[in-house]
Amino acid sequence: MYWKEATTILFIGAFSLIPAACSKHSNDEAIVQDVQSKIAADPATKDSAITATAKDGQVTLKGTAKDAAAKQRIEQIAHQESGVTGVDDETTVPAPSPEQAASVPAPAPEQQPEPPPPPPKPVVVPSGTELLVTVDQALSSKTSKSGQPFMATLARPVTIQGKTAIPKGSSVTGTVITAKEKGKIKGEGQLVLALTNITIHGKDYPIQTGTLDSTVKGKGKRTAATTGGGAAGGALIGGLAGGGKGAGIGAAVGAVGGLVGGTMTGNKQIEIPAESPLTFTLAKSIKLPPPAE
């Protein structure tokens, strides 16, 4: 009796498993049908040759997708299907033909950032450059003192490569190196000047120039400078540019009143009136900031 009951239970249990197996099989078939229908209807995937299979909700995709975008869309359709537990995507994408490969534009080369522009170079006013100035006050071998500063104004702009490096009107400072009064009977009168500073756009720059050196000898020792007088005397008030004497004060200055008068009585002094133009020569270059754009 017990054997009959056990047999009956096993028989009933076996038949009860058949509907479950059939249900899973039906679900897989429905999944495959729905996935393939949606692939065929989707505009992005309809031109792809794809087959789908399913087992226990696990979908396997095979075939050739139209392109990479279609392949991605096919897998997305399968994942979104109800009842799907997983997707095994074995689809491939055909390699482009030579014509297609040639039509694909090459990626643009990566643009390298442009290097920053080089910093502007400073302006260098070289040694040997002439500075034409007008003195702001009168200077004299009789009244001026050695070491006395004097003021002047740049009378002509200094240009470097066609651009103004030092503008006209810049303030200039000088020093009386030597001031020696001429004696009436004997002895020399001497006046030696040099520039020491220039103000450019409100900033001071120390400078070194050759000296302007003028000498008047005593009676009986007059040179061409003392006897010539007038414009000739003015032209011979020299400038030591790099150590050599030169005509630093123009003939026009001498014409003002005979800077080296030198009469027979020998009592004239070296006189430089205010507003007289004097030319000094730079003995050392000046480095200035780059010009403003």
Keywords:
single chain; alpha+beta; 2 domains; GMP Synthetase, Chain A, domain 3; 293 residues; Lipocalin; rod-shaped; eight-stranded antiparallel β-sheet; three-stranded mixed β-sheet; 26% helix; 6 helices
Reconstruct the topology from this structure.
Layout: H1 2-41, E1 49-55, E2 58-64, H2 68-80, E3 86-89, H3 98-103, E4 123-125, E5 130-135, E6 139-140, E7 149-154, E8 158-160, E9 163-166, E10 171-180, E11 189-200, E12 203-206, E13 211-216, H4 224-228, H5 230-235, E14 238-240, H6 251-255, E15 271-272, E16 277-281, E17 286-288
Parallel strand pairs: 2-3
Antiparallel strand pairs: 1-2, 4-17, 5-7, 5-16, 6-15, 7-10, 8-9, 10-11, 11-12, 11-13, 13-14
Q: Mind explaining what this structure looks like?
A:
- Strands 5, 7, 10, 11, 12, 13, 14 and 16 form an 8-stranded antiparallel beta sheet that branches. Strands 1-2-3 form a 3-stranded mixed beta sheet.
- It has helices at about 1-40, 70-80, 100-105, 225-230, 230-235, 250-255, and strands spanning about 50-55, 60-65, 85-90, 125, 130-135, 140, 150-155, 160, 165, 170-180, 190-200, 205, 210-215, 240, 270, 275-280, 285-290.
- The radius of gyration is 53 Å and the shape is rod-shaped.
- The chain has 2 domains: about 1-95, GMP Synthetase, Chain A, domain 3, CATH 3.30.300; about 125-285, Type IV secretion system, VirB10/TraB/TrbI (Lipocalin), CATH 2.40.128.
- Strand 11 and strand 12 form a beta hairpin.
- The protein contains 6 helices and 17 strands.
- With about 290 residues, it is an alpha+beta fold.
- The longest helix is centred in the first third of the chain and has 40 residues, at about 1-40.
